[in-house]
Each structure stands twice: as C-alpha cells, then as structure tokens.
Amino acid sequence: RVMFALAALKATDQVETLHSGLFDVESSVRIAAAGALAGGNSSDSPTQILAALEKDGFFQMKEACVDALSAMADQALPAAIAGTQSPVHAVREVCIRALYKLGKAGKSEDVYGPLRRAMLDSAVDERLRYYALEGLVGLRLELPDTMQKELVDDLVALAGSENSTTVQLRAAWGLGHMYGVLDPAGRTKALAT
C-alpha cells in the first residue's frame, strides 16, 4: 500500500524508497514499486528497473516495468536501447516492448534501429524477435518512407527464408499490415512473397 500511496502522491522525494521496493522480498511490493516509478522517478530509475528485472522476470513485474520505462520517455530511452543487448531475457523483452511504446510517443526514428537489429538477429530468441517485429509494424505510420521501405524488404526476406516459423509467420502478418502504406512497387513485392 505504501508504494501505491507514493505513486498517487507522485512523491519524487521518495524515489529511493521506490528503488528499494524494486528489490523487496515480496513480489507485490516489487511490482507496485515499478508501477509507482512511472509517476515519480529519477535519472537512475531506468537502471534500477533493469537491475530489478535481472532478479524478477515474471509476467506482472515485466508489465509494470514496460509501463514505467515508457512513462519515463526520453529519460529511459538510452537504458532501454542498451537493455536490448542484455544477457537477461526479461530485460531484453521489457526493453524491446518499451521501445515500441517510446516509438509511439514520438521516438520512432530513435527506436527503429534497435528494434530492427533485434528482429533480424537470428541468434536472438524468437519471442523477442516477434516482439521487435510486431513493434516495428505497429510503428509503420510513424516511420519515414525510407524506413517503411526498408522494413518491407526485411519482412519479405523474413517471410521467405526465416528458419523460425514464429518469426516467418509474423513477418507475413506484418506485410499484410504494411500493405496500406506501401507504394505500388512495395505492394507488388509484398504480394509476391
């Protein structure tokens, strides 16, 4: 309840308490602390969130961390980009999903490169590639034409020759969603896949 009260008050003078809550023994306290950091945080909050994810990568914690990093906007962008390279699956997942939300909040060109790298890297877990692909397709309307065309080329390649069935099917799905923003040459390319 303390974490929720601090969140409701947007108690920025209690950010260290929220940071401590991220590492509490009780999972509900950790989740509440992550959620509270969406409203009141410091420059160290993104790093603290990612460190907490290394110890608690369960569903509700991940959801709270995605929301918190997304709410931190520019402040979280460098940590989220760096987190896509973490060896910890939960950190990578949260960062990829947060980058999509940051892209929707006006940072589409900043998040495009890290999401694209994750989508194309066959060494990355297919679930993370799926999130990255889904995020890029979700940002299609915010991307400049050159990035849209590059994304279509990537999706065509993935739909045609990807080893992961999950990624391959999601790429085909993505081409369907991209169809409306494509020029005639891009539409022909997408349909030929």
Features:
72% helix, 11 helices, 0% strand, 193 residues
Can you offer a commentary on this structure?
- The chain has 193 residues and is mainly alpha-helical.
- Helices cover 72% and strands 0% of the residues.
- Helix 6 (77-83) packs across helix 7.
Number of helices: 11
Poorly predicted sequence stretches spanning 5 or more consecutive residues: none
Average pLDDT reading: 92
* Secondary-structure element pattern, one letter each: HHHHHHHHHHH
Secondary structure: number of strands? 0
The percent range for helix content is over 70%
Please give the radius of gyration in angstroms: 18 Å
Decide which structural class fits the backbone.
mainly alpha
Strand content: under 5%
What about the largest sheet?
A: none
How does the SSE layout of this entry go?
Layout: H1 2-9, H2 15-21, H3 27-36, H4 45-53, H5 59-72, H6 77-83, H7 89-120, H8 126-138, H9 145-161, H10 165-178, H11 184-191
Helix pairs in contact: 1-3, 2-3, 3-5, 4-5, 5-7, 6-7, 7-8, 8-10, 9-10
Quick recap:
The protein is mainly α. It has helices at 2-9, 15-21, 27-36, 45-53, 59-72, 77-83, 89-120, 126-138, 145-161, 165-178, 184-191.
